[in-house]
Batch of 4 targets.
Target 1
Amino acid sequence: MGNDLVVPAIVAVTLITVAIGFYGLRLARTTSDFLVASRVVSPTWNAAAIGGEYLSAASFLGVAGLILKYGVDVLWYPVGFAAGYLALLLFVAAPLRRSGAFTLPDFCELRLGSRRLRTLATIFVIFIGWLYLVPQLQGAGLTLATLTGSPYPIGALVVGAVVTANVALGGMRAVTFVQAFQYWLKLTALALPAIFLALQWQADGRPAVTPPDGATFRTATTVVVEQRAVLTLGDGQTLEVRPGDELSFAEGEPVPEVSGVANGATDWLLPSDAGSDDRGLFATYSLILATFLGTMGLPHVLVRFYTNPDGAAARRTTLVVLALVGVFYLLPTIYGVLGRIYTPQLLVTGQTDAVVVLLPEAALGAGTTGRLLAALVAAGAFAAFLSTSSGLLTSVAGVISTDVLGRGSVRGFRLATVIAGVVPMVLALNVSGMDVSQVVGLAFAVAASSFCPLLVLGIWWRGLTDAGAAAGILVGGGAAVTSVLVTVLGPALTGWPASLIAQPAAWTVPLAFTVMVAVSLATRRRAPTDVGRTMLRLHAPDALRS
Amino acid sequence: MGGNISAVIGVFSLVSVLAGALFAVGRLRGRRGIATPGQRATYEVLHTAGLAAEPLRAGLNPAGAAKAARHLRTLIGSEGLALADTDDLLALDGRGAHHREQLRAAARRVITSERSTVLGEAELTCNRIDCPVRGAVVAPLGGASGRIAGALVAVTGGAPAPGLVQATLETAHWAGSQVALAELDSSRERLARAEVRALRAQISPHFIYNALTAIGSFVRTDPERARELILEFAEFTRYSFRAHGEFTTLAEELRSIDRYLTIERARFGDRLQVRLQIAPEVLPVTLPFLCLQPLVENAVRHGLSRKPGTGMVSIEAQDAGAECHITVEDDGVGMDPATLTAGIAELAGSTGDPGDDPGQHVGLSNVDERLRSVFGDRFGLVVETGVGSGTKVSMRVPKFHPGVRAGS
């Protein structure tokens, strides 16, 4: 993969990010003109920053990989990732901003006045943050391994260490302009190569994405297997392969069918057959619920809303985010589809998450254009992973330093950053076999079954009590966490239990809502006495307040 | 589908059994600590008293009194219990609702006479044959500074026993002290508000005089500028003298400081250099009203007034996770740290005129006290200074603190 432009591109992106983080503020803000200095962040800038922080390695690499592998079923991932902001816009954005809360634990304390509930919320924030950080490091390790040939653990560790150091030394303290820059970088890094890829596809005579007799190799290819799998070769033979095996295919030879991967044209192109088996349908609904309702519970997203001056600006910001993120998610789909044609060998190796970084060179050849575009995509992938993990690490470390360590000093924050950074690095070394987007999906499921009920009921229902909220978070969120742990660490399951555990949101979210309402009704006496005042604060338009 | 439903039910019941087990373990653990009956009695009395104290600490009002009466009745063990303030019966828990008028009259009498009284069957006549009320003990609740704030009425089913009378008197005494504490709380808040008002009144005279003189010098030479300055000055005073709100946002405070500096620059010309570095993310941070402006005034006064040549004032606000760090720095004459500490101590001890240079200590210590009272002791001002080496004042403001919000 001797693309000598990739490493310089990655280094350049990293250096630019760190440099803007450290000096950008200084350069942009040193002025004696007060009007410039006191100008608030506009909704457009803030929206780009939210987009920059939100579009993670899972979005940049993972979505395309899933589409390559499973086809039309997983289109719900990009749809859900974007549509989560609709739920946020409708139910949460403006009231949350008016409340003045900075983090989710703050909201618990403000609305329900309970320190214990705050502690519980803190635990969940940390868990979700870590669960979301793991796939970022995983994506980084994978990208480095694919592009430079270094072993996976080294990539994940090096990058994790860079991010931790950068955050601990204060380089990424929620710098809006850095994150906004990252969004546009990521969009460019996907959009520009996508245009070239589409042109190349035209020039190649628009080869069918799903030829009737299965996908074929366009060039002679040697594949190194990285996951144990059963292959069904073109002539009907089955072959069991182990990691390390090398397979060679000639030009035009059909791609072997891999167990567990949608390979045939109809499988890939159509939604999974609902008639024979409800499980696919259940998993889909589960995924929709998790992504639609989970976005509002992500710690690093909510923190950004504090930058808005008032509720109306928060709402406008969310609307712009919806547009920006929506545009972005069109692109990974294109990569996934074209990956079927140009990089079918990834289906055999199992490294489908690498499709975005490999596709430009595979489609456009190893000429200057191909190499430049490959370097651009690699830089974009790095931006994706740097911005998201820095944002996540900052919010997790912030919560740890204020609520767990109990001190707000700079040293406390640094210690918290190291703690918050090391745990996901260790975890990332042990889950290399999972799809990046699926782990992210689990983080969404936990957020949707713990914080979504808390926020929605807390904002829209006067009857919520601290006991009800705690019970709902414990039961619903606890069930989701258990599912995650079983999925990641536990034994492989089959049949319905496997579906219930792999995509838990469809039962844990209703469970959380039910428990929260029921326990709140049973403990009606514990409702905070100042609920009327809090509700007024959350819902009264900003103009009425002053 | 049968299998699916049973699987769902299975998972659900497993989760609920787990939750139940956790709850039971928690309860048992809570019990284990109380061994002897005496300890348990102490625990129960203090626990109930604690529950009653919470609503009482909010002052005597119908909602709080209703909550407190329930726990106080458990504490005394009477049939019914009522709480009254100087005007009316606020809440009545348990038996005796149909004697409301008689109890109210008795409470009135006790509050005026300031002496407790025992009501027998004769004073509590009624035409209900099965009336459970046979007597009552009425005791006054002492408020702050010896004033009577209300009365506590314990309703009994028989002639009040001496033990019950004693318990009622002691409970009334205790409840009275809680109410007194509530009054202290509110008077402390009033004091804090008065301090803000004092600060507003205090910073102004010097500045108003200097500003008007500076503007006056432009009236003939540059009338347009003079007009602009007067408008700035008007806006500045409107903000500084605003009547409502204990809190404001950093953006508002900075806007006011901008007006202040515009006027000061008219006075000092190029001698006053200002450097600003404000992270836009922290502009919505809520902080006590007028807690930055005195620091900037101090910096201008020390950075410039007593030294020749130009002076630089720099204001920085940085985003630091869950906090915002603000520093105000000048390169002026500075001061001896010992003098500063002594000045503040002297100020805290004295009640009258605060000495020869009132501005500097009063401004700093007032801001410091208000920051501490709002955010807690960890969030005081940090002053770094030395003779001839300028002064740097820094503060940390949490982005969220319960009870703090702009415009309230």
Target 2
Amino acid sequence: MRIFFHFGRYFILMKRAFGKPEKFSIFINRCFEEMNLLGVGSLGIVAIISVFMGAVITIQSAFNFESPLIPLYAVGVAVRDSMILEFSPAIVSLILAGKVGSSIASEIGTMRVSEQIDALEIMGINSAGYLVLPKIVASVLFFPILVIFSMFLGILGGYVFGLMAGVVSNYEYIYGITYEFRPYNVIYALIKSGVFAFIIASVPAYHGYYTSGGALEVGRSSTKGVVYSSVLILAFDLILTQLLLV
Amino acid sequence: MIQINNISKSFSGRNVIDDISFTFETGKTNMIIGESGSGKTTLLKCMVGLNDIDSGQILYDGRSFTELNFNEKKDVRKEIGMLFQGGALFDSKTVEENVVFPISMFTDMSESERRDRANFCLQRVNLHNANNLYPSEISGGMKKRVAIARAIAVQPKYLFCDEPNSGLDPKTSIVIDNLIKEITDEYHITTVVITHDMNSVIEIGDHIMFIYKGNKHWEGSKQEILKTDDPEVCDFVYATKFMRDLKSKF
């Protein structure tokens, strides 16, 4: 029954968060601040992970495609489709759930236990709208850009490391990544990343917002935020794949 | 003026506030005193709407706060300034940005006007050359002064102070007390101070309510509290040996 309590409270928080902002100019500024913090601040980790994911997929694919019946350009196809369909939207989102999710939950949780959220409420400010909505908007707008960035770097990483390891030729890899390319796959990935971004921003924000106690509870909220958002990302990955691809 | 009528509040079936009525007068420093755990902070949180009450009525100059809708409550809250126990300053903002924040939210002042107003408030609380420091870089007493500056930035009609002296040395406590008193007189606002510091009560208290186990046990002036024979109030007021010795001499 506890799940229904959290479900209801989460939707009440979202209803409050999506209320009309007190001042639109401040709201826009807050969105840009959050884009910088949550989005631009994650470029480094996304770049590193994507390059290495692309490289590993290339080498593993080449290792597994030993049969002479499978052309070597299939390595390029495998890297492209793996990155676009799953690794960039889902794995990067899981990484961001850890990095960004814990940051959101601990920031809002600390503000709760140090009475900063109460101070906002006393001033007559919708604290959920002021704190949570800019994070959601920034994430939903910026995370798809991170995913595109990840796709590009993953495929590039696969190319560079594939050539360096000598497992695939320049021509075969380029031919592979352009072979029967479906632009819809990118749209599918962007839809997924938008949904995951909403989860990454809203679920940890919920756990942070309802923190009570002290530093220990802030840590617990942060952990819960990351765990629940990761589980939800995996669940919605399955649901969206079923809905959009099958 | 703030009136509370028959307010009750319980948590998990345990009565924390039990049928309290009181009138907090305008232009006076109204003190709520009592032992730790007596329900002072809960009462204050009920008054400002951070906790919902189980029964009773809260009137802000005749407006029944409990019967207002969300947006109407927000309008009343814009008239409230609050000094929290720990200051509750925004960690990510500098001292000046903390004071500018409510001005930016609720006025259409230009950037330079906002900064002027913030500087005026900071100077009013005798805080100089700290504009660009972050809350983590200033002392407890300075945090309280910034919090007062933030509270008065948009000229509130009601000022709530939750244990303004906690964690401060006696000298700084008096500075903060006097500041609260001066601001109350200067802006003619309704000030409610929660404290268990008898020095504050004697220094600035105009109208005092003593809470005991969630009930209003006693009310009166600072002169009256020193003369009362009520055993619970005497236990609280004359808790220290120094105060008992002082009482025996008079």
Target 3
Amino acid sequence: MRRRRDQRIKAKGLRVYVALVYAFLFAPIVVLVLFSFNNSRRNATWKGFTLKWYSALFGDSAVLDAFKNTMKVAIIATILATIFGSLAAYALTRYHFRGSSLYNGAIYVPLVIPEIVFGVALLSGFNAAGLGLSLKTVIISHVAFMVSFVIVVVRARMSGFDRALEEAAMDLGANEIQTFYLVTLPFMAPGIMAGALLAFVLSFDDFVITFFNSGVGNTTLPLKVYSMVKFGVTPEINAISVFMLGISSLLLLLTYRIQSGERRTVQEPDKG
Amino acid sequence: MTSDEVAIRLEGVTKRFGDFVAVDDISLDIRQGEFFSLLGPSGCGKTTTLRMIAGFEDPSEGSIFLEGVDVDRLPPYRRNVNTVFQNYALFPHLNVEKNVAFGLKRKRLPKKEIEQRVHEALRMVELQERGAAKPNELSGGMQQRVALARALVNLPAVLLLDEPLGALDLKLRRQMQLELKHIHEDVGITFIYVTHDQEEALTMSDRIAVMNRGRVEQVGVPEELYESPATRFVAGFIGVSNFIEGPIERRNGGGVMRWDEGQRVIVGAPAGMSLGNEVALSVRPEKIRLLEMHEQAPEEQCLLLGTVRDVVYLGMTTQYKVDVPVLGRQFTVLEQNVKVASDQTLWEAGERAQLSWHPYHNRVLPPGGEAEHTEEGV
């Protein structure tokens, strides 16, 4: 009897603990979302529901410009990083060449290096090269760190690739180019898609690297939020944040869906 | 054999990987419509040979002719051969129908014809119901059939099969062996079949090339390989053999090895055998009779004395391991379990026995040669 009661108390305790952890993680976000709909300038008391902060946001040309810049950077950088990253992942898994293990390890450097160091390094690089800061330098910086993420994701996919599939395609009359498009690329596709989505999210909300390499007048959304926060957290900021949160969550959800789908279709080759 | 009956001709084909010689100067003629097996232990070069015919590897030396045409410079997609891969290599993103249609689509055949031929091929392997399934939804045996249909639907001049049944369990393998054999008879395409399983090769093949260390040891029909092994390796790899070595002396028209207590192994007169030299022979276990010590073996029979060490009752037969002191070897003897007399019993371990057989069953092996092949994981 006693043991059962103890267990009941334990189970209850665990539930409280878990609730606290989730509250700690999500309460600030919930508050942020709620107050973006609050009919008051102050983020303190609830004064009723409104959408006026959102309409103010979409009427604010500075915010809209920042959003356009962010999208431009994210889309172009994602396309470039996905192409470079996928090709690199293909080469690294498919061929062994001098220094290929060094390359394989070096991929992790942009993932673990402090972002501020990476940002400063790129900045001094652009200065040395005589490149004036602009959206172009932002795009280059983003590609530089996104490529690694794309490689890691695509390489993981390619590690399950059976070369016999390419031989089978050639055996059945497909030349090298057809083999790549008809067999290799479709196999890589889920990895490429997941890598691209991840890269897009990273670019979309990047602050530190963008901050160092954007120069004057090339504000992206995260930079805009930062400059607005200097004058206190206003409901407009809440609204922008909710908007960004929505886009990021959507893309991450999509990435997750693709990757879990991919796990189901990976064929386990039986060993003979 | 005229040249238009030859589907594939290998002429002095050699393949080196760095210093390692995987295939060493192989010449073979494989006939139109033949079921031809390349048989040997792992690492003997059989798969490399197959891959050179398919075009995945280039020979270091020598030439390969497909229906009389030198295909050395042709990439795999320009050769009229198709392969069934060891792990099937089905395209995971395509369903069964699209897998099978892959080769026909590359040939840009009319859509109607592709559909019809895919349908026929799937019917042949009894998978017409599963056309829409993805490969990973199928069992190993079904995937194997899809791989077969995908290759055969193209009606290649030669079908190459690389241990296609290796991943299947024994029962399914037996069943697929027979099905493959039937399909071969139906389509009339030349099959080249790579396997390390001698039983499988004997069951299915018209002719077999036994390979070892990159070389072809012997080419022949299954019976020839079993009854008249040309080398020590073949004698040991195909079935079980007992080996006898010793100096030979002259005996009217032939030779004989003699030991004390009347023990003798009589040899015919093989060409080029010089008397007085060491000679190596092999004899199959089922050719030898075990006689009681008091029985009298006919003078023209071979006779050795031994002690039974091991008795394994196998139902239809009993296998004995018998120590033969004069040779310092253990013989394997296989006896049919037919009771000749009502009081006849099996031999028991420790009993002394006479081993007797007709000299006709002795096979003279070339001197030197390979060490005996010991069965590994077969």
Target 4
Amino acid sequence: MIITCPWCGPRDLREFTYRGDGTITRPDIDSENVDLAASFVFDRENPAGDHLEIWHHGGGCRSHVLVKRNTLTHKIITCGPLGPFSKNGAKA
Amino acid sequence: MSGYRLDRSDNGGRIDRSKHLSFTFDGRSYSGFQGDTLASALLANGVMVLGRSFKYHRPRGLYSAGPEEPNALVTLRSGNRSEPNIRATEIELFDGLEAKSQNCWPSPKFDLMSINQLGGNALAAGFYYKTFMGPKIAFNRTTEVWWQFEKLIRRAAGLGVAPVEADPDHYERMHAWCDLLIVGSGPAGLIAAEMAAKSGANVILCEQHPLLGGSLNGTGDTINSLDAEDWAKSCIARLQAFDNVRILTRTTVQGYFDDNILQAIERVADHKPVPDPHEPRQRSWIISAKSVVVATGAIERPMVFSGNDRPGIMLADSARRLTCEFDVVPGKNITVFTNNDTAYLAARDIAKCGGNISAIFDVRPEISGEARAVAALIGAEIHPGTAISRTGGWQRLSAVQYGNYDFDKKRVAPQSHRYETDCLLVSGGWSPAIHLTSQFGGQPEWSDELQAFLPGKPTRNWRGAGATVGAFGLENTFISAAKAAEAALEDLGLETKPALIPEIDGNNFNLAPAAVFEIRREIKRGKSFVDLQHDVTAEDVRLAHREGFVSVEHLKRYTTLGMATDQGKTSNVTGLAIMADARGEKIPDVGTTRFRPPYTPVAIGAIAGECFGHLKPYRLTPMNDWHCDRGANMVANGLWMRPECYNLSGETVEQATIREARTVRSGVGLVDVSTLGKIDIQGPDAAEFLNRVYSNGFAKLPIGKARYGLMLREDGFLFDDGTTWRFSEHHYMMTTTTANAGPVMAHMEYYLDVIWPELKVSLVSITDEWAGIALAGPKSRAVLETCVTGVEMSNEAFPSMGVREGTIDNIPVKIARLSFSGEMAFEVYCGAHYGQALWDGLMEAGKPFDIVPYGLEALTTLRIEKGHVAGPELNGRTTADDLGLGQMVSRKKPFIGSILVQRDALMENGREQLVAVKSLDGQKIRGGGHVVVSSDSANPGESLGHITSACYSPELECYIALGLLKNGRSRIGEKLYITSPLRGSHSPVEIISPHMVDPKGERMHG
């Protein structure tokens, strides 16, 4: 499998580590809602088809990237940046 | 009679009669020619029985001429180069080749295990399940007896034996990319390759055989007025002139993976007695291809009938290849049994070379004019509408029985006629080699016309060409390959010119077979083999059906059909057809199983490549050479190599450990802690970030101070512990455990990238940039006082948890007063390149204080005595409270895991808690031993917990351990037992508080 890192270009799967579901949002740091926290940690959709995922380019630029992957065919549809240097990253 | 070599000196085939080669098979010497395969050479020498079958030990001979060979498996070479289960058809003969038959004793001709044939029905499908999976009658008794038998029975069945010695050869891995990978160099592959080459595409062409050309070799066809073989040669010569074409022969494409990445194995030196110096034996290619043309051809199918495994029976086209390419005819008096016209072509070519075909049995009552013309030409009598009902002969075929075939009843008539023959060529139609396209889920499609599965719609960037997609006959092949190449090149955005389809002068036969797979008789007698390699019979398939294993996946696992080393290349479709018939359904409705990589068996060495022996890099600390020079036992700790202890002469590990630990408690010792994970943290939001990452408060850590911190996972379990030092307003350094250095870094990067990108914090791993030395013991301060410049060392000026910067021997250092051992202790860090100099400086300064270096064992002993947790306790299933660190989980601030750490399951009674145990009988306590109440070692009862870390305590002068015990803190003072049934130990212990040394912490603060 080849993932095209937005910073490094097309790279082999072995440089990346799967870091989880990209569709879920962590509750705000000040949230005390147990259900939200439990859902963030445990609830996953496991779709058969296109899926947003977070991958860590640990063997490269060490950035996290947002990958849209088809779980049936393993086809990587898109791969975009995450983090403070991405377009929507820095909230401040 | 048997196979023989034609006397044709004008032969244009692949053998070179001027080069004689000698080889041995089962110790006997034979000779062959350069260009022979082991199979063709053995056949030329009249060796017909090459081995015994898997279960029934029936004599078996050569069945094919290619990678699909199910029978002729041999053990090649000897000693440390011996290799089992190698197909004789795929071995190129070399001088001095050594091969042995398999699965027979004392010889394939006279095999004592052939007695298995008599008890044949007992070894039917599901034998092992039925025999060894029965209910246990008395505890551990009845099945135990069966297990003894199983060993004997398993020895009786099986194939070759793997060598026990290390492989002396080496292997290598290559990565390559191309625009277009072409798999197969037959007519389809060649024409596609030439089109691609002309378009400027970067092309790799892989051919599994040494000779390019595939089925063009040895046919009688004419292409563009040239002999097919010569046309192939000219085409190959043109291809070789292109710079953008790489041709790999002896290279089998084994697997098709995601993103059009394919693996191929190149057999670089398998055709030589041993590889040349520095030459790899095999090379594994990982090829990333933008597009692939699959031109893998098709594999001929056998017919299934009673006694169809007798040596002398083989696939018709394979016999043609042996005759036309190797000048070896498989018999003196050859007969043919077929359900299609291709067998007539084989018969024609064999006869043309000089073989004698006497009769053709064809199940079809109507036979085409072309086929009849061939039979007339070669003087073979045709028996239309007949089928072989059984075969006869001792060790090898001597005669067949044939009768009329009834299509309605799907049976052969009981009245049969005998026909004497020493060689029967069978053809049951062709199965396209769809293995590669099926490997990643391409759904095969059934073709009623061809009675075979075709690759179906591409799910990836590949195009099928030629027989692979059911285009049989040269003209169809060329047209389909040109189309495939055109489409593939168009996908790549390359310009192509319409292909010039060569002119072909050959017969255009109708290749569709009659839908007959098995010849059943009215009476059930004899064995009809579907899978020759695994000895699966047609009756086994029906048995599976009767017993309810009707899905193809169940059929496969229950009968092991198609699960041998050939992956059912010749048997899968026939097996499906028989199951479909038993279910009364059509073949496509029964479905098909998915092929798996590799296409043919692959040597483990080729997969490993250069990665053998030590698989991972060593990580060495800057002081590694010093440790080794001092004779330290170096042990692996993750990737790191660390000194276990520094034995003085005559000391055991335990004695050295005790001496080192005692010295730390009474004087001073130093230990290399460079392996601890170190992360530099900077930024205006660093304090806020650390406060969220650690479960205890970090917002108010003063500059010049360090703090011990706990990290939780989001689910509330403990993740890691360590210290963080604050150097300035926005600058920190975190240390992690050695094992979690990488995961902690990735964990924090994740939160900064994904969860809180608004936090202005930057992380850098500096584990390798900084060397670390811990100086521990009551005299540690005194040692530093003599050598540190720029740091006030008094207890008041440099209190516990203080962080200072200074120099030692002009080396800039950072010092923190931190203790892992419970003694007064300092961690001193410096740039990695100064590590050894700093170590030397501290050793020198410590000389008057009798300083000793101590290793991992003493470090562990000291921390166990102090009750400090480490990896074995931070096992991913413990909470801070379980380990007695509950007070370090803040209730006042949110942090990672702050909500779920309070969930009921992590707060409930009965969780295992950290305790220490003390041996009461002077016996060593085993790590992994379980805590039980019972004193009876035979009935230890329920486990209350287990031992995580154990050692001998020089301070307490007894064996101690840390462990996790249900409600442990309320059990302190109880006397329980540690049991380890596997090691036969069961010892009394007392549960004590984990704070065994200096519980008030006076030593480290003094």
